[in-house]
Amino acid sequence: MAEREKRGNLPEGEAVHVSQTDTASHSADVPPSPQTPRDIAFDILKGISILEVICHHLLSYSARRYAVPGSIEWWTMMLANRVLHFAVPAFLLATALLLARSAATRVQPDWKRFYWRRAERTLWPYLVWTLIYIAFRVQLLRAEPDILPSEVNLPWGGTVTLPVILADAKVWRSNLIWGKGYYHLYFMSVLLQFCLVFPLLFCAVKRTRPGFGMLLLVCVVLQGGAFHLHAQVLLPVLQFTTPASSLLWYLPPVLIGVWLGVHWQEWASWWSQWRIALRWLTGLGAGVYLWLSWRQLQGVPIPSPMFNAAYLAYATGIALELLAWCQHLVAQRIGDVLARIGDWSLPLFLVHPAVLFFFGGPRATQWLNALPAPFLWLALMVLTASWGVTALVWRLKADRLLFGRSLAPSAARSS
Question: How far is CA 359 from CA 346, 372, 382, in A?
Fold first, then answer.
């Protein structure tokens, strides 16, 4: 970037929608206080995470389209897909950290302003893109479960026949509350749930001020309780089959992020003290997670609580490692490039699944099949086209309408 001002939009992603997505990437922007300079390291982290979200989605897609199931190419892409699956915890941890760091600098946080900003920057684009992707499903995807005709009684009498995705109130609730409008939007729902309870989490951490060891214990207990609650109540009684759309599935990255935000001035000494232990935990989690992923891909039933616990240990540890690594990239050219990508992480997160759909037609698939390493070509095309769509929206001055904020770099630094 031309200017090396410190800045740090909050990741929303992932998301990495990221499915992931992700992926999603995507972030909740926090206006900097005078005491909290914006830190480009967080834009770099967003850039890495949104690239991970896109690659995560493209790898599973490419394995289906360009590889024979069970072949070396298929296994390579599917295992890489599992490795590149840390964006949701990474975005949540960074969001929690930056929100808490900003709030901690104020004697009395302005929670009314906080919720207004979240509605503008997160809720609004979530609702807009949920409606866009529902229209996308009705007009283009046209999957049979979505377009089955259903009669709706009109308030003034008579009936009208609509696709079930538009007529069924249960489907609307699932799409709007749990992010099921399209496969990556669940992350936006999780982010909104976090924003809703953030003041409670922040006040709890700030007032009790637990040590990090105690916090880890609390994370283990609460996450274990959440897994048990899902298995014993949410699934059998409420038939809640999509726990990954719930904030309860991501408690460690959220709580650790809030704790780090409150104690941010101690980051350097904290990381020096804990990094070895955290790397061991990350390695253990990665080993169990990848082994269970391997078994799952072979069609072998796996224990869900163990799989999810290992995944959280792996993904949260990777998020912390990346946070430390990104701080070393601030003064490097690659850091500028990643930060620029991270600045547009939310639009890229929201746009790229639709772009991938248009590159998935039979002609594009046949053309890519004729090239070596079709995944790499597809990734380049999707990223370039997603960036182009985002730039077009910005040039047309529709960015606030579609994404809840100006996409101009200067606006991103001063928002």
Answer: 21, 17, 8
Burial zone of 20 (CB within 10 Å; 0-12 exposed, 13-18 middle, 19+ buried): buried
Q: Which helix (H) or strand (E) holds 161?
A: strand 159-163
State pTM to two decimals.
0.88
Of 102, 112, 28, residue with least CA distance to 405:
28
The full set of domain ranges for the chain reads 12-414
With beta carbons less than 8 A apart as the criterion, state whether 323 and 49 touch: no
Q: What is the pLDDT of residues 332-378, one digit of tens each?
A: 999 999 999 999 999 999 999 999 999 887 777 778 878 888 899 99
Give tens-digit pLDDT for 221-239: 999 999 999 999 999 988 8
User: What DSSP element (H or E) covers 338?
Assistant: helix 333-343
Distance between CA 345 and CA 262 in Å, rounded?
25
Residues of the chain with pLDDT under 50: 1-36, 411-415
58 touches 375 (CB < 8 A): yes
Residue that has been written with the tokens 């992931």 in this structure? 20
Q: Which amino acid is at 47?
A: G
Q: How far apart are CA 240 and CA 227, in angstroms?
A: 12
Q: How far is CA 74 from CA 64, 78, 311, 355, 359, in A?
A: 8, 6, 22, 23, 20
- Tell me which long-range contacts 223-229 makes (C-beta under 8 A, separation of at least 24): 223/251, 223/252, 223/309, 223/312, 224/305, 224/309, 226/251, 227/304, 227/305, 227/308, 227/309
Structural contact between residues 49 and 345, judged by C-beta atoms closer than 8 angstroms: yes
Both tokens of 83, joined, read 């490795």
